[in-house]
Predict the 3D structure of the following.
Amino acid sequence: MHQLTNENGGPIFRLRSTDALLGTHEELRRQEIYFGRPSELNDPVEGFTDVSWLGDQILWGNLIRHYLLCLSWYATYWLISTVEEYEPGPIWGRLTVADLPTNDYKRLYADVCEEFGRALNIDEASKLLSSLDAPLRREGLRAVLTLIHPVAASCLMQTFRERGLSEVSLPSLGNPESVMQVLVAMRELGSDGDLPDIPLTDQLETVGQVVNQLHDQMQLSLQSHSPTPNANKWNDLLTTFPQRYVDAAIGDLHFPPWRTACFTQTCTNASIWGTYADGHKGAALVFRPSYEGEKRRLMLSGLIGSSGQARPFEFLPVDYRDQPPAIDFFRTMGRLPMAKIRDTWFTNSAGQVSPRFNEIFGDEEQWRTDYWRKAMNVATWKLRDWQHEKEERLVATTPFDDDPAPQPLKYQFSQLEGIVFGMRTSMDDKLEIAKFIEEKCQAENRQDFRFFQCFYSGTKASLDTKELTLLSFDADS
């Protein structure tokens, strides 16, 4: 008889409320497993990555131009939106010049770049950024873009006004000379050896955090004194865009969207019963994975792009760690075709290709292997605060769709070995679950389904389970 342990090929558990199993979603009747988006999970840093930007002059110049491209595209939405109905729109991080709908729009974007270049020399700024002795991380890049943004917004609106596309007029915002001075100061940071025990990249990140925190506090103060729809609209364009751009560029350019279904190696942890099974009033589904070598899998159907066919999903243990996975921004742009990656990000206006292109993509097969390994690492890490959960995950993702599993995926009833009732599961819920399982066992001629009860063991001083051996069904009863 199998023991209720995950060791040596044992089962794996999925804790659910009885409402999810029997009520609103009928997951038990439908044999469905819901896959949640990262934003629906209980850790606020789900899917978060420690991204760094380390590039040569070509890459940094193209990042600044891409920022202007996304800002120009977003400004169109911003201008046509009414104040009364305004909501911040999405920023399309995968946007390229080739995606612009008309030649006139492409010329408009070129004019914005030209106007910005007269105010702040893109080549000089990108040269300074490329000369940094350490990569910028998320807060450092956001601080740089926050300094650049007022100049960019002024140039953008000036260009739109000259083209007759807008009557909005902005004063000269920002100080290009101050921007360049800050970039020079960043380049020289650490050169005097004042903080030898702190890595330069951490020094740059700390400076960025200070700049961003001051900026956020100032904006919160301004908004609190002028909480009007018009102020909200202006705040979106003039203050929050840099941070939203950074998030969009990472989210849209790196890995395809993913969803996950969460399981655990144990069903005797009181905390997870309280969190995921409605305060011990729910139940734990006991699944018995199949094996292919050392890989444990569950067959599921319904994934977008799978033509309705069942396919194996591998159980991936969660990696509990103090820091998110480290990602090189320019090395991980897997959501664009290779030609667009090269032309948009690694090639300058003179047709020169960054040496980093061949360094990164020279062995494309190896790059793709590393890319998908990193994608799974991002989808399966959590902070150490959660390690008591002993979580394992099934991850649904596909390069062919922005939502790989909008509907729950279906499992085979033969893969469901048993059910564990919680300490507070009501008798009515137990009877309803048992009746449903009896009908399924009769329909599929099964006699091996098992029920368990979770209880507090005084001898073990912990939760434990006992099998309800009298609760069984004959296939022909």
Remarks:
- The chain is about 45% helix and 15% strand.
